[in-house]
Each structure stands twice: as C-alpha cells, then as structure tokens.
Amino acid sequence: MISTQKRSYVTWTPQMDMILTSTLLEQITGGNKGDGDFKPQAYQAAVDKLRLDLRLNVTIDHVKNRIKVWKKHYATITEIRTYTKFIWDDERKMIKIRVEDLVAWQDYCKDNPSASAYQNKQIDNWDDSCTLVAVDRAVGDGAEQHEESASAMEAENEGGSTSETPSGESNKRLKRDRLADAVSCFAESFKDYLKAKDPPKPTSSEVYDVVSNVLGITRHQIMRAVKRFLGGTVEEFDMLKRLPEHEKLDWILLCLE
C-alpha cells in the first residue's frame, strides 16, 4: 500500500510503478508527450489510473516526483555503464559489483556519491524508464534534470548527490558524448517498445499454462483468470508474464476485481 510522510511524500511499490509506466506509455502513443515533458492530461491520466486501480490518494505532484526519481536512476546508471568497467546485469537490471571489484567501486563512489545506492540494486522498470526518460535527457538540460531528480530521490529516502564535472572544452566534449549515448539508448529502447506495442493475442493454451503455474492460485481462480485474460487486453496478460513470481497472484486478483 501507500504511506504518506511529512511533506506528502509517497513510498512507491513495484505494482504502482508498473501501472504508472504502462499508463505513461499509452499517453506517449496517444501523443500526450511534448518536447521534454508530458502534457497535463498525461499526468492526470496516470493519477486517475492509480486511484482507480489501487484506491490510492496520489496527486500529480507525486507522479512528477516519481518520474524525477526515474530520471535519477537513468542518469546515474547510464553514467556507470558508459564510463566504468562495472558489470550491468541486463537480466536482473542492476549494477553487479563483484568481490574483486569492491575496492574499485568504493573509490568510484568517493568521487560519485550518488552511485553508492546502486550497488546490486535491482531497477525493476529499467527498460520502461529508458523509453520514458531517455529522450528527455537527450534533448533537455541534463544538469538541471539531474538536480531536480536528485531532490526527488532524497525525498523518498534513497539518498544521492551530484558530483562535479570537468570544465571548458573537456566538459563540452563530455556533454556531446553523453548526448550521443542517451540518444542511442533511447532509440534502442523505443524500437523494442514499438515491436511490443502490438503483440499477438495469446492462445487459450498459453493463457492457461501461464496462469495455472502462478504460486498460490486456486483452481477456481485459474478458471476465472483464464476467462478474464482471454477477454481482456493483450497488455494485461503481457504484464502478468513479466511480473516476478511472487507478484503474479496479486496482479490476477486485481484484474479479477
């Protein structure tokens, strides 16, 4: 569920993140994203969806702050992946620090304090984050976005701070390199998104196989869920397949409400 702290901060759950990302992707498809930011109706659509599906009292500011946190994730992880030797585990979506790399990692974090929070930290919605925020990083003011997203991340008690960047000509070259990396990452992520935008409708056999293997599900729930997903949208069933095993039943029960 949701917990509200001082200043109305919100603790986000993976389920909330998935609903938010899927709604924002739909808003992109519907043309509700301008140059560097979503249109007001996109934010409102996300708020309405979270309130409807999870009965949560979230606001547009909560949604905007969450997107700033994603920008922080994207900026820091892209920096690590591009300019260091540390390993990115694409299956688990995390920076994996091996024992033999611990000293080098600690030295890196001394110069880049915001990176320390990402040691073996899984970013569940990394692929969607690339699609949602990479283009903003490519066309917007990276420094300003980094500062804003860092503030939002601190609000959620995830820590982080910015580090100094080179000056003069080396700084310009670094910005050009980062711009090229951001554009490249966004292009690849958006290409994958377009491929998955219109996936084929699943067969009854596929739906049954996936649903019947969900941990803790009853036989009656299996039958109801199969009927629900066969008559529902492809995206709902696709989300079920992408969820971690311990969250699949929650998603099914939510769809059956």
TrEMBL record:
Residues 150-169 have a biased composition (Low complexity). Residues 143-175 are annotated as: Disordered. InterPro entries: Myb/SANT-like_dom. Residues 11-98 form the Myb/SANT-like domain. This is Myb/SANT-like domain-containing protein. It comes from Beta vulgaris subsp. vulgaris (Beet).
